[in-house]
Write a structure and sequence with these properties.
CATH architecture: Distorted Sandwich
Shape: globular
Helix content: under 10%
Largest sheet: 9 strands, antiparallel
Radius of gyration: 18 Å
Number of helices: 1
CATH class: Mainly Beta
CATH topology: Beta-galactosidase, Chain A, domain 5
């Protein structure tokens, strides 16, 4: 059961067990596909799940309680083969539990559930983290879906539901946050047309958007309307030259370039008391031309 599918009158969704990653999301009335197919020569992923960190760690390392650990960018969930999967009337649920393997890189006991359900033309993605440790759990979580329903990035426009300043965080060459900010030139503070140079400096990272909805609109009239839900931070990214655009709701950010490496001092880290449960969800609507 490495690939699970659900569908309704409007959409068909496929998710693979490895990484609990969406691989296909299809509008049924015309069979239009909205998720990037994945191409190893460009970018092999489709919609990675980010846990237990978002972004990169300084030197890919952190320390906690006097011990040093290593984690790759965006954590270990996205390539993890140990997710279990289930399907019921409400949708799909994928579960990852702590193990001896995870404790070698992340010293907390946990249960991480990610669920997918359909409501007409909307996909709801729900995250649940249960702290099974005897101490406070420190973590981040986020989504990274790559949408591809036009031929090139310059066919897309990003629209915000509220007027925004356009300020984004500058990253250094290692992908770490700096104190510098850049400002996107938004039309009426709410929209921007993408082009082939939009992401030459890496992702657009918004520390805190006013907008709860971010829409990716194509020249064809097809759109994806992302509702950030419980997620405070937001990233938009494409690999230069690729035809996809990622809309990324996050709870957490990459390390600052001057971070001391201690997990407990990491800015924007989430803290979950022992025995407690954390829930957060985002959703997006698919409108096919």
């Amino acid at each position: 059961m490495d690939l699970l599918a659900i569908e309704n009158e409007f959409l068909k969704l496929e998710v693979k067990r490895v990484g609990a990653e969406i691989t296909q999301l299809t509008a049924k009335h015309n069979n239009q596909e909205f998720i990037w197919k994945g191409d190893k020569s460009i970018w092999a992923n489709h919609a990675p799940v980010l846990f237990p960190i978002v972004g990169g760690l300084k030197d890919n390392k952190y320390s906690f309680e006097g011990k040093t650990y290593e984690l790759p960018r965006h954590g270990f969930a996205r390539y993890n083969k140990d997710f279990t999967a289930s399907k019921n009337e409400s949708g799909l649920t994928f579960t990852l539990e702590s193990s001896e393997k995870t404790r070698q890189v992340y010293p907390f006991d946990f249960m991480f559930n990610i669920s997918f359900s359909l409501n007409e033309n909307e996909l709801i993605v729900s995250h649940e983290v249960i702290n099974k440790s005897d101490k406070e759990m420190l973590f981040s979580v986020g989504g990274h879906p790559a949408f591809c329903f036009e031929e090139k990035v310059s066919d897309y426009q990003v629209q915000f539901s509220e007027e925004e300043s356009g300020e984004i965080i500058d990253l250094n060459n290692s992908g770490m946050r700096t104190d510098n900010l850049s400002t996107l030139q938004l039309e009426n503070g709410q929209s921007i047309n993408l082009d082939d140079t939009s992401f030459n400096k890496d992702a657009w990272i918004f520390d805190s958007l006013r907008s709860k909805k971010v829409t990716l609109k194509g020249k064809s009239g097809s759109t994806v309307e992302m509702n950030n839900g419980d997620f405070k931070h937001f990233g938009i990214w494409s690999k230069p030259g690729a035809p996809f655009v990622c809309l990324e709701p996050w709870l957490g950010l990459a390390d600052h370039e001057n971070h001391d490496g201690k997990l407990e001092n990491k800015s924007h880290i989430l803290r979950l008391p022992k025995g407690e449960t954390f829930n957060a969800s985002f959703s997006f609507k698919i409108i096919s031309a």
